[in-house]
Amino acid sequence: MRQKFLLTGAVTFFFCASVFAESASAPVAASAKTSAGKPTQATPDNTSLQREIEQLKRQIKQLRPDITEAMLGLQIRHARLWFAGEAGDWELAAFQVHGLQDGLDGIVENYPEHAALQPERLGDILPAMMGAPMKTLRAAVDNKNKAEFERAFDGVSAACTGCHTVAGFTFLQIHRPKTSLLDNVSGTPVATSTAK
Ligand code: HEC
Fold it and tell me: What does UniProt give as the signal peptide span (predicted)?
């Protein structure tokens, strides 16, 4: 969230800086024409502004988390979704499906030309591979149907693995989790023992 805010701020600043750079150079060009014959005014030095823009571009790049981090986010959502569905926590499961979709959309937005998928475009291949399985999964959760959910979950996992295979990461096989590592969130209140 904070990163997103910083990124937006940096992009806005960068945009303003480039608009300023353009408008700053325009009067100089105009005055060079009108003052033909007379000694030309010294052209303002734009190199420091240019340097600043380059620095901001580098900072924007650094602010964007690596695709690996985004994938780890998908892995967490994917695992938590499974246990929510198995527990029949359909509201929580719907929330996880939403999060998974958000994560996928963010990856398309941030890495549309990622090197791992070249010559294919990640921006094209991800929606093509994940679109239908995600839709089926959403429907299964909406229907609160466990058997349907399990089938749809496997469909999504296979699509995840499919992309890893295309990207040359065949060793990243995505499947049903066996153990819940993050079991501190539930759809309904859970009795907590205070006994020591
Ligand atoms: C568009 C293709 C694509 C899709 C779809 C995709 N992945 Fe990935 N995934 C990758 C790539 C590429 C990497 C390797 C990233 C890197 O360079 O570290 C990766 C890496 C991973 C990793 C390893 C992260 C690490 O560093 O340990 C996990 C876990 C993962 N993906 C989970 C998922 C899950 C879960 C899904 C489906 C919900 C999914 N991925 C869908 C392309 C994809």
Answer: 1-21
